[in-house]
Amino acid sequence: MLRDFTLKEFRGVAQAPYLSAAGTRQRLRDALKVAYAAPSVPAGWVGAGHPDVEVLLGVVASDIKYAARAYRDWCEELQLELVRPVSRVDGIVDAMLVRGGVYLKYNSKTKLCYVSRYDGKDRGVLIQLGQLQLGHFPLGFFDEAMAKPPPSF
């Protein structure tokens, strides 16, 4: 299911089969949690409980507040340490002050989290588990109503 979603997302046709109904979005969330928890030898993924686990998140958004929300929500759901992002934008020290499109990258093993400018059209969250890259998942994948306020770092 996750690989099919990713292929359809890449081609721009994931909306109808996976994202248009609450039930299919929930099945997609459930499938992601199963993939995250279980080791996958072909993908080089050791599973969430392994001490050497490394999760990479890439969040592309039109605004830092959307990116920070998604990043926080994914860290909460996957029980990853939330690290304050640093800015990689010249002249802007506080990542939360970057304006316009952003790319937020997080590495759960190194605890590196940074924000840079992003001028592309994609929006959403990419996750990499070993060699398996999945997404773009919607920014509000774990908080569809975006009821939680943006994190205050």
Write the layout of secondary structure elements.
Layout: H1 2-11, H2 15-19, H3 22-37, E1 55-61, H4 64-78, E2 86-89, E3 92-94, E4 102-107, E5 112-117, E6 124-129, E7 132-137
Parallel strand pairs: 2-5
Antiparallel strand pairs: 1-4, 1-6, 2-3, 4-5, 6-7
N- to C-terminal separation? 35 Å
CATH homologous superfamily placement? Dihydrodipicolinate Reductase, domain 2
Mean pLDDT across the residues is 95
Assign the structural class, choosing from mainly alpha, mainly beta, alpha/beta, alpha+beta, or little secondary structure: alpha+beta
Give an overview of the whole structure.
This protein is α+β, with helices and mostly antiparallel strands and 153 residues long. 30% of the residues lie in helices and 25% in strands. Strands 3-2-5-4-1-6-7 form a 7-stranded mixed β-sheet. Strand 4 and strand 5 (112-117) form a beta hairpin. The longest helix has 16 residues, at 22-37. The termini are far apart. Pfam families: DUF1824.
